[in-house]
Amino acid sequence: MPIVFRSRVFSVDVGPHQFPDGREREIAVVRHAPSVVIVPMVADDRVMLIRQYRASVARVLWEIPAGGVNSGETPEQAAARECEEEIGLVPGDLQRIRSLFPVPGFCDEALIFFVARQLTTPPPDSTHRPDEDEDIETRIVSLAEARSMVARGDIIDLKTAYGLTLV
């Protein structure tokens, strides 16, 4: 299918596709590299959340760290990097939980969920910093409080709401 739009984050393909029943239809697919989603546990019952502005919804949201897997990077490497970039801590223990497609009706992005534990300060020579368009605030809360934030509607990001069910 021909690419009709390309940005630094995703592209859009539009064209004919043959379905299993033999019929052909024109479809549009958002192509997006896999992303990692990290549940950073600072203690057995405490999680670190991030708060940042999301231009797509013009709101500040509470989330767990997440980001794309760069070319040549494993999901584990991406999860460790994103953890350090977004919360300033390096996971000593990173457990891969599962991979899911959040919106397979039009997008091929896979979300790969991890739980990060044994979080420590990065070495002084680390080059990992937040992206230039990120202004991130962090907060440590109990798992019970994070789940209450979902129930109250304070957390409205689906990957975060789901990620909190994994721990």
Helix run count: 3
CATH H-level name of the largest domain... which superfamily?
Nucleoside Triphosphate Pyrophosphohydrolase
Major beta sheet summary = 7 strands, mixed
Q: And the CATH topology of the largest domain?
A: Nucleoside Triphosphate Pyrophosphohydrolase
Return the domain count.
Answer: 2
Compute the number of strand runs: 10
Q: What share of the residues does DSSP label as strand, in percent?
A: 35-45%
CATH architecture of the largest domain: Alpha-Beta Complex
In round numbers, the mean pLDDT is 94
Provide an overview of this structure.
With 167 residues, the protein is an alpha+beta fold. It folds into two domains: 1-32, no CATH class; 33-163, Nucleoside Triphosphate Pyrophosphohydrolase, CATH 3.90.79. It is 17% helix and 45% strand. It is built from three helices and ten strands, in the order βββββββαβββαα. The strands form two sheets. Strands 4, 5, 6, 7, 8, 9 and 10 form a seven-stranded mixed sheet that branches. The chain is globular. The termini are far apart.
List keywords for this structure.
167 residues; alpha+beta; Nucleoside Triphosphate Pyrophosphohydrolase; 2 domains; 45% strand
